[in-house]
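Task card 7
Instruction: Convert sequence to structure tokens.
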Amino acid sequence: MDPDRQRASAEEIRDWFLDRRSWCMDLIRIYLGLGLLAKAIAFVVHRDELVQTMMDHHIIWSGAALAHFVILTHIFGGLLMALGFGTRVGALIQIPTLVGATFFVNWSGGLWGFAEELRFSALVLFLLVMFVWYGSGPLSLDARPQPAERETVVDPAHLIPRPARR
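Output:
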């Protein structure tokens, strides 16, 4: 392939992504939301293992109540993020869970060990913080067109010209 044509193709791809940056962010948000929802389902199926993992890592208040908190935040936060309905709230409610997973559960494996859990949970935590800051994009329920506002009655007093003040 001609190097100039290859360079043009790379620039076209870059420009295409730059023009659709918010759509790309939305696809990441949707994928992250669905992934956290899937993780919640996995935690429901393996709730006893979740509780045991928390107890093995000496997590404060570990037990069934904390396991239910983790599951519920992943379910509701994942749904909110996937739909783009309250994306910031959906991401925000999951941050405590991911802080716990990153720094209390997965930290023991080390950053450069063979276990990928620390790096993956740190990536998810970073993405959640980013979506708290960034919010939803055009592919969200938050961005849907709002119904037309009710017709307001104009106060005639505002239509009367007032003399200029000196």
